[in-house]
Write a structure and sequence with these properties.
Number of helices: 14
CATH topology: TIM Barrel
Family: Belongs to the glycosyl hydrolase 1 family.
Structural class: alpha/beta
CATH superfamily: Glycosidases
Organism: Clostridium polyendosporum
Helix content: 25-40%
Number of domains: 1
Distance between the termini: 10 Å
Largest sheet: 8 strands, parallel, barrel
Strand order of the largest sheet: 1-3-4-5-7-9-13-14
Keywords: Glycosidase, Hydrolase
Order of helices and strands: EHEHEHHEHHEHEHEEHHHEEEEHEHEEEH
GO cellular component, one term: cytosol
Region (Disordered): 20-41
């Protein structure tokens, strides 16, 4: 089937994973700049002081900073209707607490947006995507400090005013629900839970739910303020939330498995969007906080702020589904942020993520039934090891199969009545993996010649999927 007229086909990236130029143009260090490389088996580390001789993947990434014209031209060749990207907060406010923005940073994104608009590509901008000024981590322990709200809204005011005629679609925080999970403390919150150097982005770091959920509350307030501010600057702005959706199935029909599945869905998936879409904390969250001994410190005006700053649309990432079991002896599987029990009915990617296209249809219906606002799939893709053949071609049929199967189910959801705005597959050009810091885990339609240690020519090479996706966009989803 064809999608509706104006459907936003495109690709998605994050500044800290592909932009590079980490200390150029007046940019300050971000939290992502303090994360070392890693592999599937060796966790990335956080080093509050940069270590000489240690590789930090975000410092150069794939150098979009110097190659943006070439890269955007290739997105234009595919026919992108939209391009999801993020702004590096520290390119605009290097330490995070300055009162005036960095003009050189603002000018860079002016140039990027102009280049996108030259090819009729609508920018979709994530305001904060797994990076924040490291200066704010040192000063306030990241989002654990309420002071960050003013720093964030000052940042939003600067970019909303500067780009009000170039950018229409905004997302306040990438995968905001990441803070409901232990892994999210530093990556999503800029928080050093145990305050020590060399903390691993794994279960090796101590967890503190009180700090995480208080930081999340600060992000809710910041997001709501940004929505209200954005609409006052340009009433045509469409400002959305962004959730890392963890589709969960019960392992059995044991009522304990059913209840566990529901609880995981509520806390990990729905809590954040309930607050951002509906404007208040749901009852189940209050019970969870009470039972866990979590006390959210709220100011008198916070409930009114949340109510006044509800988002216009709901966007999310979907890579896989998970299985929830109350039996502690079940064999676990890998996943994006969370793992689960292995599903015997599904195949897995090279990184152990279980591939479930039908879960996307289920998820779209589940979310739309709850909120009835426009939805957008802003991350979906397959991380795989790509091989360059002797003739220079890269035959990534496995990626085409993955994306085709998910788009088919997306179209089924539209037939079910879901209001879907667009689809931006993740990592339209190869970039650094957020979870592992690798280049080996490739997602893109465009191959970038760079390895896990930072070696390579940076040459861009279209893969087989490049022309396939071009055809998908040309036919508006009819030819898959």
């Amino acid at each position: 089937m064809k999608m509706q007229e104006g459907f936003l086909w495109g690709g998605a990236t994050a500044a800290n994973q592909f932009e590079g130029g980490w200390n150029e143009g007046g940019k300050g260090p971000s939290t992502a700049d303090m994360m070392t490389g890693g592999t599937h088996t060796t966790p990335r580390r956080i080093t509050p002081i940069l270590e000489e001789g240690t590789y930090y993947p975000s410092h150069q990434a794939i150098d979009f900073y110097h190659n943006y014209k070439e890269d955007i031209k290739m997105f234009g060749e595919m026919g992108f209707k939209t391009f999801r990207m993020s702004i590096n907060w520290t390119r605009i406010f290097p330490n995070g607490d300055e009162l005036e923005p960095n003009e050189e940073g603002l000018k860079f994104y002016d140039d990027v947006f102009d280049e996108l608009l030259k090819y009729n590509i609508e920018p979709l901008v994530t305001i904060s995507h797994y990076e924040m000024p490291f200066g704010l981590t040192k000063k306030y322990n990241g989002w654990a400090g309420r002071e960050i709200i003013d720093c964030y809204t000052r940042y939003c005011e600067a970019i909303f005013n500067r780009y009000k005629d170039k950018v229409k679609y905004w997302l306040t925080f990438n995968e905001i629900n990441c803070l409901t999970m232990p892994l999210g403390a530093f990556m999503a919150g800029g928080i050093l839970i145990n305050g020590t150097e060399n903390a691993e982005l794994s279960n090796g770091a101590k967890d503190n739910e009180q700090i995480r959920f208080q930081a999340l509350h600060h992000q809710f307030i910041a997001s709501a303020k940004a929505v209200k501010l954005g609409h006052s600057i340009n009433p045509d702005f469409k400002i959305g939330c962004m959730i890392a959706y963890m589709c969960n199935y019960p392992n059995t029909c044991n009522p304990d498995d059913i209840l566990l599945t529901q609880q995981k869905d509520q806390i990990n998936n729905m809590l954040c969007s309930d607050v951002q879409v509906r404007g208040y904390y749901p009852g189940y969250a209050k019970r969870y906080f009470e039972e866990k001994g979590i006390k959210i410190q709220m100011e008198a005006e916070d409930e009114a702020i949340l109510k006044a700053g509800c988002v216009d649309f709901y966007s999310f990432s979907y890579y896989m589904s998970l299985v929830a079991s109350s039996d502690p002896n079940q064999e676990n599987s890998s996943g994006n942020l969370l793992g689960g029990v292995k599903n015997p009915y599904l195949k897995a990617s090279d990184w152990g993520w279980q591939i479930d296209p039908k879960g996307l249809r289920y998820t779209l219906n589940h979310i739309y039934d709850r909120y009835q606002i426009p939805l957008m799939v802003v991350e979906n893709g397959l991380g795989a090891v790509d091989v360059i053949e002797e003739d220079g071609s890269i035959n990534d049929d496995y990626r085409i199969d993955y994306l085709r199967d998910h788009i088919i189910q997306m179209e089924e959801a539209v037939r079910d009545g879901v209001e879907l705005m667009g689809y931006t597959m993740w990592g339209c050009i190869d970039l650094v993996s957020a979870s592992t810091g690798e280049m080996k885990k490739r997602y893109g339609f465009i191959y970038v010649d760079k390895d896990n240690d930072g070696n390579g020519t940076m040459k861009r090479i279209p893969k087989k999927s490049f022309n396939w996706y071009k055809q998908v966009i040309e036919s508006n989803g009819e030819e898959l």
